[in-house]
Each structure stands twice: as structure tokens, then as C-alpha cells.
Design goal:
By secondary structure, the protein is of the alpha+beta class. The protein is 16% helix and 31% strand. The protein has helices spanning 6-9, 21-26, 99-108, 113-116, 162-172, and strands spanning 13-17, 36-40, 45-46, 61-63, 65-71, 87-94, 97-98, 122-123, 128-129, 140-145, 148-154, 180-182, 190-192, 197-202, 206-211.
Length: 213
């Protein structure tokens, strides 16, 4: 099956939290010493042309732009040295977050599921061929809301690089073709409201746009 249809057959979205030091600091969190992981279901995917919806109980919806790794080859216990061989391509994703629900969950020591895994919480771009990204460790990610730049970062600032993430994740769960790893967001997250237009880009490779319902 073609990886260009990863949204249709991929089984999981593995997300990495606090993978940019500036973002960890702006949230008031310590910089992690190992990857912080959480999951989104594939029902969270949202393709262009559809609107981002507020989940139940959300009063503070935030955007986070992230580089997505699309897995091309099945693997577990993958060594860092060969991890890039398992990358089939890339995508640009948004980790939409119900911040008030996440903050409430944190205070109780509860999981973030309701804040991170709701329907439409993962707007996603079209598939990007691996060869289209010449240096994945030096790629600009940016996001604007209603024409105002909010996030403008670079994957060079990741705490844990892609081979480390693939190796770490695959120790606990098998990665399969079509699975996506969202690799974390740079600083500048912020709120959106109904009617806002989010435009995000991956270097000069692609641009995508979504409206908040």
C-alpha cells in the first residue's frame, strides 16, 4: 500500500512532548532527560478542507506545529544507527491541545488523553517524499494564525533527534508502515478560537491551512 495514503491505513500516532527546550520552559516544565511520549488515535487525523473542532469541555484550544515522521518499514528494537532506514517519508502535523483540560489532568496526576486525543486534534498534511527533505535535522517549521506568525522554529533545536526517537519508541512498541511520530513543537504555542485560520509550513516544501470551526 502506498505511503501517500498513510492516513487511511496507519495504526497509531506516537507523539513526543517537550522535545524543544524553549517549549518546555515556556510551559514551566523541566527539560526532559528521556523522551516523553503519548498517543493519539488515528481518528484524530484531519485533512485539509475540514475544520478543527473544539472538544467537549474545552475553553482554551492551543496550536502546536510539528514535523511528522511516516514509518515505511516495520520494526522493533531498532538501533539508532539504522533508524533512518525505517523512515518512509514525512508530513507536517498539528498537535491541537485542549490546554485547560491538560492543565486539569496534570494537577490530578491523570493522563492527558481527553486534552490531546479528541477528534480533529491532529490536522495533517499530505505525504512528503523522504528525498524532498534534504536535511531533516535542519528544517524550518512555522505557523501563523490569521496572518500573524506564532511559531517559527527549526528541527535543529530538537532535544532528541529522529534516530533516537525511533529507537526509543521501538523498544516498547512495534512501529509499522503508515504509523506517524510527531516529533514535538518549537516555542510559540498559543490559543485559537472559532473562525481563526491556521496556516503552517515545512520549510519551502509545503504549506497547509485549517480553519477552527
Amino acid at each position: 500500500m502506498s505511503l501517500s495514503k498513510f492516513v487511511e491505513f496507519g495504526k497509531k500516532i506516537v507523539c513526543v512532548g517537550r522535545n524543544y527546550a524553549d517549549h518546555a520552559v515556556e510551559l514551566g516544565n523541566k527539560v526532559p532527560t528521556e523522551p516523553l511520549l503519548f498517543l493519539k488515535p488515528t481518528t484524530a487525523y484531519l485533512s485539509e478542507g475540514n475544520s478543527i473542532k473544539m472538544p467537549p469541555g474545552c475553553t482554551d484550544l492551543h496550536h502546536e506545529v510539528e514535523l511528522g515522521i511516516v514509518i515505511g518499514t516495520k520494526g522493533s528494537n531498532i538501533p539508532e544507527a539504522s533508524a533512518m532506514n525505517y523512515v518512509g517519508g514525512y508530513a507536517l502535523g498539528l498537535d491541537m491541545t485542549a490546554r485547560n483540560l491538560q492543565d486539569a489532568a496534570k494537577k490530578k496526576g491523570h493522563p492527558w488523553t481527553l486534552a490531546k486525543a479528541f477528534d480533529t486534534s491532529c490536522p495533517i498534511s499530505k505525504f512528503v517524499e523522504k528525498d524532498c527533505v534534504k536535511d531533516v535535522d535542519n528544517v524550518r517549521l512555522w505557523l501563523s494564525v490569521n496572518g500573524n506568525m506564532r511559531q517559527d522554529g527549526n528541527t535543529s533545536d530538537m532535544i532528541f533527534k529522529i534516530p533516537t526517537l525511533i529507537s526509543y519508541i521501538s523498544r516498547s512498541m512495534t512501529l509499522e508502515p503508515g504509523d506517524v511520530i510527531l516529533t514535538g513543537t518549537p516555542s510559540g504555542f498559543g490559543p485559537v478560537k472559532s473562525g481563526d485560520v491556521i496556516v503552517a509550513g515545512l520549510d519551502q516544501v509545503l504549506e497547509m491551512s485549517f480553519t477552527v470551526a
